[in-house]
Amino acid sequence: MVSISADLGPLHPDRNLALELVRATEAAAIRAVPFIGRGDKLAADGAAVDAMRAFFSTVDFDGTIVIGEGEKDQAPMLFNGEKVGSGRGPACDVAVDPIDGTSLTAAGRQNALSVIAVSDSGAMLDASSVFYMDKLVTGPAGVGVVDIRLPIGENIRLLAKALGKPVDEIVVSVLNRPRHEKLIADIRAAGAGTRLMSDGDVAGGINAARHNARTDMCAGIGGSPEGIVTACAIKALGGHIQGRLWTRDDDEAQKGADAGLKLDGYVYEADELVKGDNTIFVATGVTDGQLVAGVRREGDFIYSESVVLRGRSGTLRRIVSEHLTSKWL
Predict the structure, then answer these.
(1) Is 149 annotated as ligand-binding?
(2) What domains are defined for the chain?
(3) Which of 254, 208, 261, 259 is nearest to 230 (CA)?
(4) Is 214 flagged in the annotation as binding?
(5) Rg of the chain over CA atoms, in angstroms?
(6) Neighbours of 298 (CB within 10 A)
(7) Is 258 annotated as a binding residue?
(8) Could you give the CA distance from residue 296 to residue 26 in angstroms, rounded to a whole number?
(9) What is the pTM for the complete model shown?
């Protein structure tokens, strides 16, 4: 069911669509469970993609995949430009990551999620030609306070003042990559602590923006698809997000320029990553994490936990579901 404006104008994604999309992330997460800890991230991703694609076909919306994860490593994927949904209902941009954290899933580690983000058609930045983005994410206290163009130490001090807490209580999430050695050193030199993530860029950003979360900021270079997905969630949390596209070589820089993307350190603000506030973000836990619990099976039941964040209403809802195991055999 979708809402229609009084003048019968364009249809837009609404709260009912949000609840329908949870079924797709639940399906992807559940189908990935047999591969948790088995060391085969492509098999896990493939199972999640197939399940998500099948459930998309039952949802009444006219979706176009703008950000389809998987291109970085030739993994199975819902590809960019693919049409999803029944074709009836609101026209939407869709960003998907059937498993954000395939390596986490394969290793049996925490914070793997199945994720979908949706906005009005034409609202999402298509950054698919550049795979990486330098991001800075905080909660509401950072809005109008921090800026990705400033040194990380200065941003830490500014955020600490805005939060009314000592610098040595600030915790910054960073992907544990060689490219971040200087960033990590600078964070620690400023007096703050780090939470190093092996994967799970989306969860890191959302946890930094949540009220009373264990981290205060998420910084560093991760996937550009994850940046767009995270921006959809941040709209609901009232937080801060900025991004700069990070090209790996001249060829990728040329592809980005040909696609009309702004490079050379240009800072994309939240409303440039995703226009407006009519955003929906849904995620189901594959493995346990700070944001949601992972899927677990107990006898005749499978349990899943999901979150739904809606930009227009500024809400975060949790959905805990019980599924009959017999329906998934």
Answers:
(1) no
(2) 14-121+278-327 (3.30.540.10), 132-273 (3.40.190.90)
(3) 208
(4) no
(5) 19
(6) 9
(7) no
(8) 12
(9) 0.88
